[in-house]
Write a structure and sequence with these properties.
The protein is of the alpha/beta class and 228 residues long. Bound molecules: cytidine-5'-triphosphate and calcium ion. The site of cytidine-5'-triphosphate has 15 residues, from α3 and β9.
Length: 228
């Protein structure tokens, strides 16, 4: 049976995607994490693969199966994620959907921390590397299209505009992750696509497109169509 051939607008393109949370160790048995399920990043990987791209997905710990035909690299911490992303370059398009933990514990315990009469263990936090900003600011291997996400619970558009400028990326997918929206862990997403063609125009040169509520698969398909 002859089927009409699928349009493969991203054929020959290398797409690099991050997804999921990161786990930052406190001691050998405990970690800091967040509520990201990885669903949006995995859906984008599947959509890009279906569009013909050669896709590498660097994911933190999630309970999702590898999308067919995608190279999946599983990591734990933000630092692991950064190293695997750097090793996966060059890419034509990089999409940073991971909810990277902003902080890790500086004084990680080599042994399990024990309850003592001296009180709670003090946890000192240090900032993790910013993977999106690091890759956006590369001079030699910067992918021609760098897309970030902005997870916000208030002042969504203004915060996302500031983020696109600060990080040096080309587009940002902004989404409201307030608990009432059910985005974190859920199957639907309401996003706004912020784009800028010229980095010199600052926040004034950023266009905002607001999309209706969609499934994460639909958001992925729309984003891939836009990229194509
Ligand atoms: N990101 C990243 N590495 C980090 C933190 C964030 O690559 N250490 C990426 C995310 O994958 C996302 C974008 O940066 O694409 C924005 O993440 P977000 O958490 O919304 O922004 P932050 O800059 O961390 O600011 P804040 O959490 O304070 O809003
Ligand atoms: Ca953050």
């Amino acid at each position: 049976i002859l089927r009409p051939r699928q349009p493969r607008p991203l054929a020959g393109k290398r797409v690099l995607i991050t997804a999921g949370p990161t786990h930052e160790p406190i001691d050998p048995v405990r970690y800091i994490a967040n509520r990201s399920s990885g669903k949006q990043g995995f859906a984008i990987a599947a959509a890009a693969q279906a569009a013909g791209a050669d896709v590498t997905l660097v994911s933190g710990p999630v309970e999702l199966r590898d999308p067919a035909g995608v190279t999946v690299i599983r990591v734990e911490s933000a630092r692991d994620m950064l190293h695997r992303v750097q090793a996966a370059l060059p890419a034509d398009i990089a999409i940073f959907a991971a909810a990277v933990a902003d902080w890790r514990v500086a004084n990680e315990g080599e042994q399990k921390l024990k309850k003592t009469s001296a009180g709670m263990p003090p946890l000192q936090l240090v900032e993790n590397p910013d993977i999106l900003a690091t890759i956006s600011k590369l001079t030699d291997k910067r992918p021609p299209l760098v897309i970030g996400f902005a997870a916000e619970t208030e002042h969504l558009i203004d915060n996302a505009k500031a983020k696109i400028a600060r990080k040096g990326c080309d587009w940002i997918v902004a989404n409201d992750v307030s608990p009432a929206t059910g985005v974190m862990g859920g199957d639907r997403n309401t996003v706004h696509l912020l784009t800028r063609d010229d980095k010199d125009t600052g926040v004034d040169g950023i266009q905002v497109e607001s999309w209706p509520v969609m499934t994460k698969e639909q958001v992925a398909a729309e984003l891939v169509a836009k990229i194509a």
